[in-house]
Each structure stands twice: as C-alpha cells, then as structure tokens.
Write a structure and sequence with these properties.
The protein has eight helices and ten strands. By secondary structure, the chain is of the alpha/beta class. The chain binds adenosine monophosphate (AMP).
C-alpha cells in the first residue's frame, strides 16, 4: 500500500494501471475511519482490481464557523486500518485547491464550483447552502485526478450519494457510482467520524434518532401511510431527548421531494443537533428506507 500526496503522481499511477487493463475503484473519505468507511473499501475491493482510498478533509464543504479546524483526524491509525484490506493507494493530498498566494490563504485561486441545482437544495442543503457545492466540486476533482472506473459512497449520507450520482450522470463522468448500506453501531447509532465528539450523555440521547426511525418503520408496517404522523412522532421523541431537529422529512428515493402519503419505498431523513458543552456542534445524518 503506497501513500501518494501529489495530484500528478496519482494520475500517473492510475493511467499506468489502466493501460495494463486494471479496473480502479475510488473510495473518497475525510479520514478518521470507522467500519462504515471500511465497508465501502470492501465493496470497492469486490468491484475492481485496484483500490484507491482518498483521505482529504475538504475545506470547500465547510462554511465559516463550522468544524473544519476540529474535524477529527488520525492519519496513522487510518493507515493501520486500511493495511489489511488490500488497498493499493491512499491518496492524501495536502491541498486540492489552487491558492493565489500564501498570504491570502483563501480560495482566491479557485473559482469553479459545481451545483446540482435541485437535489442540493432540500434536507442538508437547507441549513448548509454551500455544502453540496463543496462536495460536488471536490468529488469532481478527485474523479479527474484518480480517473477511477468505479466510485463508492455510503448511503449514510443519502442526499450526498444522490447528488453525486446525478452529477456523474449529468456531466458524463465515465465512472460507475455505487451506494453502500449505512453501517450502525451495535446499539443503532449511525457510525460517523464526528460521533467521537459526543459526550457519553449526548451519544445516548442521540440514539433517539435511530429509535424514532425504527418506530416509524413499525408504524408503516402496521399500515400508517401519513408522513406527517411519522414525522411528528420522530420530532417529538428527538426533542424530548434534548435534540434540536434540523429537518425530519420523508422523501422520494430519487427526487428527494417530500412524500405526503407513503405508497412506495421512501426515505426518512433526519438531522439533529445534540449540544456539546463546548461551543461546537455537529449533526448526525442517518437516513433509512421505511417502506
Ligand atoms: P466521510 O469521511 O464522512 O466524508 O465519509 C466518506 C464516505 O463514507 C461517504 O461516502 C460516507 O457516506 C461513507 N460513510 C460514512 N459513514 C458511514 C456509515 N456509517 N455507513 C456507510 N457509509 C458511511
């Protein structure tokens, strides 16, 4: 397993592999890896001859005041976790953006952004209007640098997966997009790098999201089709556990448009804040098919 830090070297490796007929899979991550990420790597391994995992905390998707500076990082431990999985390359660039001058240290050298105009607006896009712009742009850059045949994402970030699949389709990227199932902790909490920053109490309280999704699933199985009933029980349960709901929506699997009556498989997407005693906050983004 090699660690590559330069764009040029990364592209060169990929091109030489493809010349030899090797199929390449890319798993983009921001590091601080857990079993959720590793399940994506296992899927990539099944679908290609060579696997590249990128580890890059993308400044382009953090708004000012969000947790870019304190986003959890542990590169050495990530390397150890990837070693046994047959990963060929860890692509760990220092910075993927062109900086006009070190003094400015901003995005002044970069002015091209990708927007997936409708899919990016709802759900997470409501309170983070520039988030998907940053994600779509960095994934485009990674696809252009690594030139993979397959790219693997997790459905934990359900909207992100849909946004990126649409971008790949609309812009004719020559890559197959795979979405992998959400991996949860034994008690049901969606695995997320940011979970490490929850206090024990917050972590326990955050389980209300999972429990309310399970409850919604049960209600649908017993015949409930009214989305507002399902949403109300979830919002009440999460609020009672001390969470501040950012959104709770039942949406069409592809268009992500709200669904009032559940007549076919749909996604219940919830994001909520659980306050830390530091001033920083974060979200947990589970999504689950409920019908
Ligand atoms: P991140 O490092 O948070 O940017 O995530 C990198 C990739 O791993 C994304 O495609 C995520 O959707 C995916 N991922 C993160 N957590 C999970 C999880 N618990 N289950 C499945 N995929 C996940």
């Amino acid at each position: 397993m090699a660690i590559v830090r330069e764009k040029g070297a990364m592209r060169q490796w990929s091109r030489s592999q493809r010349q030899c007929g090797q199929r390449i899979a890319l798993v983009p991550t921001m590091g601080f890896l857990h079993q959720g990420h590793l399940s994506l790597v296992a899927e990539a391994r099944l679908r290609a001859d060579k696997v590249v995992v990128s580890i890059y905390v993308n400044p382009g998707q953090f708004a000012p005041g969000e947790d870019l500076d304190v986003y959890p990082r542990d590169f050495d431990s990530d390397v150890e976790k990837l070693k046994p999985l047959g990963v060929d390359i860890i692509f760990n660039p220092h910075d993927l953006y062109v900086r006009e001058s070190p003094e400015k240290n901003g995005e002044s050298g970069h002015e091209t952004w990708i927007r997936v105009e409708n899919l990016e607006k709802s759900l997470c896009g409501g309170s983070r209007p520039l988030f998907f712009r940053g994600v779509a742009t960095v994934v485009s850059k990674l696809l252009n640098i690594v030139e993979p045949d397959v790219v693997v994402f997790g459905k934990k970030d359900y909207q992100q997966w849909r946004v990126l699949a649409r971008m790949v389709r609309d812009l004719d990227f020559g890559v197959e997009v795979i979405g992998c199932p959400l991996v949860r902790e034994a008690d049901g909490l969606a695995m997320s790098s940011r979970n490490v920053r929850l206090t024990a109490t917050e972590r326990k309280n955050a389980l209300a999201i999972f429990h309310s999704l399970k409850r919604a699933e049960e209600l649908v199985r017993s015949g409930e089709t009214d989305s507002s009933v399902l949403i109300e029980q979830a919002v009440t349960a999460i609020s009672n556990a001390g969470g501040k709901v950012d959104y709770a929506s039942i949406v069409d699997q592809e268009t992500l448009k709200s669904v009032d009556k559940i007549t076919k498989p749909s996604v219940f997407a919830i994001a909520a804040w659980f306050e830390a005693h530091t001033s920083k906050r974060w979200r947990i983004f589970p999504g689950q098919t409920i019908a």
